[in-house]
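User: Please predict the structure of the protein below. I'd like the answer in structure-token form so I can feed it into my own downstream comparison script.

Assistant: Understood. Taking the following sequence of 298 residues as input:
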Amino acid sequence: MTITRCVHRMPVFAGHRIFLTLDREKLFAGNNTLRALSQTSRLLRSIFLPVLWERVHACFTPWNQPLDPITRIVVEVSTDILMRRMVGIQKTPYILPYIRSLTVTLVECRSGNWAPMEEFVRILDLLPNLKDLTMLMPQPDMITLLSISCRHKVFPSVVRLALDNCLAPIIHCFPNLQTFTFVWRREFEDVFPAIQAHCPHIHTINNFSLCPPTVKCLRDAIPNVRRLSLWDPPSSDFCLLEDMDALSELRIYRTMPLNEPQEIVGAAERVLCTSKAVGRKKLRIYLPEETSINVFWG
């Protein structure tokens, strides 16, 4: 009781200052801590409830996919995680303004079970502050249905989008898109024309595949791209990115250790040196041993 009274007397600015000094990812391993804090007092509710609902996941992961109890092999999906989560959000409308990031897997949406897709699209219409959207694992027979459902819809608040490449037909729904992340580093042909036609503000491409056809698509569709992230690019192909006038940041992710880091650093630096971008340029190389190389100049 004494602790509760002290919390109630805590100035609002002090509560926010304490929270902003915390490492959220390490301190809150799950939502139970945030939920408990948000139920402690009105003050803590105002601080922690928005954090609890800032990122919403309705997806199958290595930790929640249904497994056979004996073989421990993933079994046919029979749960309705997307449906339950979307309906649950609609029943608690006070959390809608807090949701800024939404990640869903569409694997349960099938020709005989289209209701989860319908509820998901309805939720997108209800989120005024949604900034990040990730959509994974759509079933082939549902892509057309999703495209038709979103034909006349616009979600202007979304600025960061990650999609399976087969969902290019719905990119027109996100006219204010600034960052696009490829889920699979292949089959770019449909995505870039859609971005070029409907997303004039885009400046960042993540999970990009460095090869002549995709670089040509990139140059044609987004000539003013400013940031690129690449996975395991061969240093010999960096020359494909030279003379991109607006490019100011490269992020390189390595799944294997670098035997000769100077080679790839030098190749990436040459790319950025040919850019006419004004201001500081950044090169970040992320290595598998949880270390990184950072180079800044300009």
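That's the full token string. Residues 1-52 form one domain.
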